[in-house]
Amino acid sequence: MSRSRTKRNDVDSAAVLAALGNKYSAEILCAADTPKSAQALSEDVEIPIATCYRRIEELVDAGLLTCEGRRLSDNGRRTNIYRRTLDEIEVDFSDETPDFSQKRRTEAKNRLQEQLSN
User: Fold this and answer.
1) In a designed cystine with 6, which of 10, 33, 47, 95 is the match (CB 3.0 to 4.6 A)?
2) Is residue 88 packed enough to be buried (19+ CB in 10 Å), middle (13-18) or exposed (0-12)?
3) Is the pTM of this model over 0.90?
4) Range 43-49, long-range pairs (CB < 8 A, 24+ positions)
5) Cβ-count burial of 63 within 10 angstroms (0-12 exposed, 13-18 middle, 19+ buried)?
6) Which CATH number fits domain 4-117: 3.40.50.2300, 1.10.150.650, 1.10.10.10, 3.40.50.740?
7) Name one Pfam family in it (predicted).
8) Which among 2, 25, 3 is positioned nearest to 100, based on CA atoms?
9) Cα-to-chain-centroid distance, residue 24
10) Where are the domains of the chain?
11) Are 64 and 16 in contact (CB under 8 A)?
């Protein structure tokens, strides 16, 4: 299992810590192991859709979640589909500013996860 050590310049530590510190963010990231709409994430985590959209926006801004495209919903509307960008993150507070180690998701893992969930 390899970890890619990020540099402080690669990650906005304040945005990552703020996003992870918000209620439901970790649950949304866990639920977003496969591509899901905001509605599906809201249902999985059992939170109001407005709260889910706010958390999604924060997680996307922090680089922890990505919009993978759009799909038609059951109602025929185009909706954004989200997936987390990493599987693990470690925060080191021993310096003046936090330093992050993370295990990013590979495209191969994304494809395998999709095959297993179908």
Assistant:
1) 10
2) exposed
3) no
4) none
5) middle
6) 1.10.10.10
7) HTH_20
8) 3
9) 11
10) 4-117
11) yes
